[in-house]
Design brief:
Blueprint (H helix, E strand, L loop, with lengths): L2 E5 L3 E7 L4 H13 E8 L5 H12 L3 E4 L3 E7 L11 E2 L4 H12 L4 E5 L10 H9 L3 E4 H4 L1 E7 L7 E3 L5 H13 L3 E5 L7 H8 L4 E4 L2 E5 L4 E2 L3 E2 L4 H13 L4 E8 L6 H8 L3 E10 L2 E9 L7 E2 L11 H10 L1 E6 L12 H11 L3 E5 L2 E7 L6 E3 L4 H11 L5 E5 L11 H8 E2 L1
Parallel strand pairs: 2-16, 3-14, 3-15, 6-7, 10-11, 19-20, 23-24
Antiparallel strand pairs: 1-24, 2-25, 3-5, 4-5, 7-9, 8-9, 11-13, 12-13, 16-18, 17-18, 20-22, 21-22
Helix pairs in contact: 1-2, 1-7, 3-6, 4-6, 8-10, 8-12, 10-11, 10-12
This protein binds shikimate-3-phosphate and phosphoenolpyruvate.
Subunit structure: Monomer.
Family: Belongs to the EPSP synthase family.
Subcellular location: Cytoplasm
Length: 429
């Protein structure tokens, strides 16, 4: 297992672009594969998670070419996938496993989904239960809670489902199953989660109706291939946003970042903390808003985060914790119990690691309190096998005294290939 050590930096400046959005990359392969015609994807994220999705569709008979620039998907239509001859390995990717569960539940073949030690420990009943209500037949370990999941493709019927969690993976799994179901499928959620599936389905010509609190899809409609330009991932940009805010006098421009309002909680939170982040050159590509983000070193203060902001910033909490530790005053996060069921328990992991860096952290079942002290001490910490914990602690290392070592950093490749080079390119010591 590789470790990486970071020393305190003197400054951070430059112009960068971050790799493509992970959520949109997964969905481009899924919808491109079941559409009629050829879908060309630019900006596809070649991280392990999205590549796991790509591998799964190749294993179901879809021709997907990658010339290093464009990914070209030769769509097979709604009913064109074929039974895979082996289990489908989703690696570390919850998005692959949960969305695939929905898509596979309505096929006319058998399939098995598995993943790495972290993914096999994450909750799957949240998709298995509603898919079973639709007529899906899915078995898994621990009574269907854990992968491997064995899926016997079945005839599905649309349902009206009130999801207890604000989760785009749950919502998307049910919507994808809904494409194969008789009648209409409606999903409601407590707060709006990312809506990339809704947007991309519409881009591919599906009838998708969104209303306050939910979404409706109708089964049986064929999709038409459409080209997709994947914007930069705001969840990857988040590490650079926080880096530039906490390094004194930093000045950074991040070009071409997806700024879908269901994903911009990080910007709202950092601005509320006093962070100088501005959106420039706002435009739209493939049905998704995109902008350049300009960020300047800032003095920040603690804030309270809860409610609808939580799903809008769900993957950014580890690095928000670093911003909070460098701010003045207390930051309180509540209503974020979902953080406990990500690649690792992100509340426990960040509490443990920030305490190592000298920060006072109080844990709650659904969140945490971080007492900002505007300074961090160098330390040695673990990634807990979680890419976002690894990158967050390396960002902390930019401003910590002495040296910060993060153990087990290979996981960064799941979402952010090129992270180290990009960071090295903007810092100076
Ligand atoms: O649908 C998606 O692409 C994702 C949804 C979120 O998960 P949940 O739906 O579990 O909140 C997020 O954490 C994950 O990184 C990607
Ligand atoms: C939670 C994440 O992804 P997934 O659920 O797809 O593993 C993430 O990327 O932070």
């Amino acid at each position: 297992m590789k470790s990486y050590s970071m020393q305190k930096v003197r400054s951070l400046r430059g112009e960068i672009s971050v790799p493509g959005d992970k959520s949109i990359s997964h969905r481009s392969i899924m919808l491109g594969s079941i559409a009629n015609g050829v879908t060309r994807v630019t900006g596809f994220l070649r991280g392990e998670d999205a590549l796991a999705t790509l591998g799964a569709f190749r294993a179901m008979g879809v021709q997907i070419d990658d010339d290093g620039s464009n990914v070209t998907i030769h769509g097979k239509g709604l009913r064109g996938l074929v039974e895979p001859t082996d289990v489908l390995d989703c690696g570390n990717s919850g998005t692959s496993m949960r969305l695939l569960s929905g898509l596979l539940a309505g096929q006319n073949f058998f399939s098995v989904l598995t993943g790495d030690q972290y993914l096999r420990n994450r909750p799957m009943k949240r998709v298995v239960a509603p898919l079973t209500k639709m007529g899906g037949r899915i078995l898994g370990r621990a009574g269907g809670e854990k992968a491997p999941l064995a899926i016997v493709g079945s005839r599905l019927t649309g349902i009206h489902y009130d999801s207890p969690v604000s989760s785009a993976q749950v919502k998307s799994a049910i919507m994808l199953a809904g494409l194969y179901a008789d009648g209409e499928t409606v999903v409601r959620e407590p707060h709006l989660s990312r809506d990339h599936s809704e947007r991309m389905l519409r881009h591919f010509g599906a009838t998708v109706e969104t209303f306050d609190g939910g979404v409706k899809v109708c089964g049986g409609t064929e999709l038409s291939a459409r080209d997709i330009a994947v914007p930069g991932d705001i969840s990857s940009a988040a590490f650079f946003l926080v880096a530039a805010l906490i390094v004194p006098h930093a000045d950074l421009l991040i070009r071409g970042v997806g700024v879908n309002p269901t994903r911009t909680g990080i910007i709202d939170i950092l601005q509320a903390m006093g962070g100088r982040v501005t959106l420039e050159n706002l435009r739209e590509e493939s049905g998704e808003p995109v902008a350049d983000l300009h960020v300047l070193g800032s003095c920040m203060k603690g804030v309270e985060i809860s409610g609808e902001l939580v799903p809008r910033a769900i993957d950014e909490f580890p690095v928000i914790c670093v911003a909070a530790a460098m701010a003045e005053g207390k930051t309180v996060v509540r209503g974020a119990e979902e953080l406990r069921v990500k690649e690792t328990d992100r509340i426990a992991a960040m509490a443990t690691n920030l305490r190592q860096a000298g920060v006072e952290v109080i844990e709650h079942p659904d969140g945490m309190e971080i007492v900002g002290r505007g300074a961090l001490s160098g330390c040695t910490v673990d990634s807990f096998g979680d890419h976002r914990i690894a990158m967050s602690m390396l960002i902390a290392g930019l401003v910590a005294s002495g040296e910060t070592t993060v153990n087990d950093v290979d996981c960064i490749a799941t979402s952010f290939p090129g992270f180290f080079d990009l960071l090295q390119g903007v810092i100076s010591r």
